[in-house]
Design a protein that fits this description.
Elements: E1 10-12, H1 15-27, H2 31-37, E2 38-40, H3 52-55, E3 60-66, H4 71-87, E4 94-98, H5 109-113, E5 117-121, H6 126-133, E6 136-141, H7 151-157, E7 163-166, H8 167-170, E8 184-186, H9 189-200, H10 206-220, H11 223-240
C-alpha cells in the first residue's frame, strides 16, 4: 500500500479489491490519489473454445469440482465436505474432484467415497480436462476463504459448464455475472440443497445458464479483452508523459 502513491497507475484484478483500496485511501483522506491512479480489470478466460457442455448430451450424473492444492482451496473444500455430508442422503448426485487438491485428501479417500465424493486426480492435458468437465451436470465452487476471484469459474464457463458457487465466490463477480442467469449461488446447507432440488426437478434450466455464461465470456471476458484494457491504460499513461 505504501508504494501505490509512487506508481503511475494501480490496477486491481476485481472491483471488490478496487473498492477495498478506495475505502482504505478515503479513510486516509487521499482521495486525489484514488481518482488519478486506481482502476481495475477483470482477468479473462481462453477464447476460441466451443460450448462443449451443450455439445455433450450424455451427462455424468454427478457434480464436479476442480482446484489446485493451495491452502484456501483445501480449507474451503474441507468446509464443503461437512456441508455435503449433511445433504448427501437427500440428493441423487455424487461429487467428482479433479486437480492437485486431491493430493491433500488422499488419506481420507475411503471416508469420502462413503458420501459419494470421488477423488479423480490431476489431468495435465487442458483439452482433455475440458472434455471431461463438460460431461458433468454442474460445477461446484465452494470457496469460503481467500482473496481475488476464482478464475476457474471463468475457465469452466468458457466451455459452457454452469457453476453453483458460494456467495463469497460470487461477491467479486457482482456487476458482471447475474445470479440465476449466468451463475447459481448458495450461502448455506439449506440453500445448496434447494438449488440441487430445483435442478433435479428441471426448475432451473442449466442449458440456458450454459448459453448465457458462455456468450458473456466470449463477448466480454476473454484474455483478448483483458489485453485490450491493459493496452488502453498503457497508451493513456504514455500520452501523459
Amino acid at each position: 500500500m505504501k508504494i501505490w502513491p509512487l506508481c503511475d497507475k494501480v490496477v486491481f484484478i476485481t472491483k471488490q479489491d478496487y473498492d477495498y483500496a478506495v475505502a482504505l485511501f478515503k479513510a486516509l483522506k487521499k482521495d486525489l490519489i484514488i481518482k488519478e491512479k486506481f482502476t481495475y480489470i477483470y482477468d479473462g478466460a481462453d477464447n476460441g473454445l466451443q460450448n462443449l457442455y451443450l455439445k455433450n448430451n450424455q451427462k455424468i450424473q454427478s457434480l464436479v469440482f476442480m482446484a489446485s492444492d493451495q491452502i484456501p482451496n483445501v480449507l474451503s473444500f474441507n468446509w464443503f465436505i461437512g456441508l455435503w455430508k449433511k445433504i448427501k442422503s437427500n440428493i441423487k448426485y455424487n461429487l467428482h474432484v479433479y486437480g492437485k487438491i486431491c493430493d491433500a485428501f488422499t488419506h481420507r479417500r475411503k471416508e469420502l467415497e462413503k458420501y459419494g465424493i470421488i477423488l479423480k486426480g490431476f489431468v495435465s492435458n487442458k483439452n482433455k480436462l475440458n472434455e471431461i468437465l463438460s460431461k458433468y451436470i454442474l460445477f461446484v465452487s465452494p470457496t469460503v476463504v481467500g482473496s481475488g476471484y476464482r478464475t476457474k469459474i471463468l475457465d469452466v464457463g468458457s466451455i459452457g459448464l454452469p457453476t453453483l458457487c458460494t456467495e463469497f465466490d460470487y461477491k467479486p463477480f457482482e456487476g458482471i455475472l447475474e445470479k440465476n442467469k449466468h451463475i447459481l449461488t448458495f450461502q448455506n446447507t439449506e440453500d445448496f440443497l434447494n438449488q440441487l432440488k430445483k435442478i433435479e426437478s428441471n426448475e432451473v434450466n442449466l442449458d440456458l445458464i450454459s448459453k448465457n455464461i458462455y456468450n458473456l465470456i466470449e463477448k466480454n471476458l476473454t484474455w483478448n479483452n483483458t489485453a485490450d484494457q491493459f493496452i488502453k491504460i498503457y497508451e493513456e499513461l504514455l500520452l501523459q508523459k
